Amino acid sequence: MPAFPESHSYSIPAEWQGRRLDKALVELDPETSRSRLQALVKAGEVTLNGDIVIRPGTTLEGGETVAWTVPEVPPAQDSGGGIIKDIPILYQDEAICIVNKPAGLLSHRNHTGQAYAVPDWVEAKLGPLPMADQPLRPGVVHRLDRGTSGVMVLARTLESMQVMIEAFAARTVKKRYVAICYGSPRFDSEWIEDPIERDPRHPERRRIAMPGDGKAAATMIEVVKRFGTAAALCDARPKTGRTHQLRVHLSSRGLPIIGDKTYRHRGTLPEPLPEGSRLPLRPALHAAELTFDHPVTGESVTFEAPLPQEMQNLLDDLNGHYGR
């Protein structure tokens, strides 16, 4: 697991005169997000002709030498800020590895300056994973949001990697998530087919798109238990796999996931949660079950991950107040 600083140095083309520094950095290093590059500028890690710049919006003159250093990889942290000590492996064979991803751990890294991700931990235990054309995503065939815990599958050979990527693309993989939401669903089950798009005002967020816009997204929501009108335990079965899909779909129905600071509940809750409820420091969303055809044998296999303790704590508090 590499943990050394990475340095970059480029000459700014003359025709880039007048361009913002952060936009130029994105073109020079497309593997790194703009927000991450802006953070490096503000941290004093970027120089122009040897002088430190701290304004991402600095206007370029063209012809400068820009250089920056990505600091050492920080250790992965859980949602409470503690260091992640281990990642449970639920199953392994020569073709695949199934893990129970802790909340707070990246599914994969987008650049070498990010914290350790799932593939780093798996490679440390089981050896190299196939990279295909994504060197920072070895073995990765799907992803979970950083704040989401639960079942995640990695491929251990290029052949199985291709088969699994195609299975996810064809939507033959069945996924079941557990979510604890604010509010009370209108129905015991609901099929949501609202398209999703990037929020132009907040590029890190997604939102429901107008009909005909965005990307198709479909989710089946089933109520497992209601806790008055304060909260509900739900199973969510996404048919598609859009970024933040479950969080956006549930929030659009007035059911934001407890602990989600991005798609949080707005305004006063119609019924507050019981006093003393132990709220998770991340979205109460868990990938509980994954079913797919094994990439080698073709046999249908199902893998499950138990509910993490922070979500179980909240359920215990809700059950204690409302009764089991």
In brief, what are we looking at here?
The protein has 324 residues and is an alpha+beta fold.
Report the β-strand fraction as a percent range: 25-35%
Q: How far apart, in Å, are the first and last alpha carbons?
A: 45 Å
Q: Major beta sheet, specifics? A: 9 strands, mixed
The ordered string of helix (H) and strand (E) elements is EHHEEEEEHEHEEEEEEHEEH
Question: What general outline do the C-alpha atoms trace?
Answer: globular
Give the CATH class of the largest domain.
Answer: Alpha Beta
Uncertain residue segments: none
Indicate the structural class: alpha+beta
Helix content: 10-25%
Query: Please, how many helices?
Result: 6
CATH architecture of the largest domain: 2-Layer Sandwich
Gyration radius from CA atoms, angstroms: 22 Å
Tally the beta strands: 15
Average pLDDT rating: 90
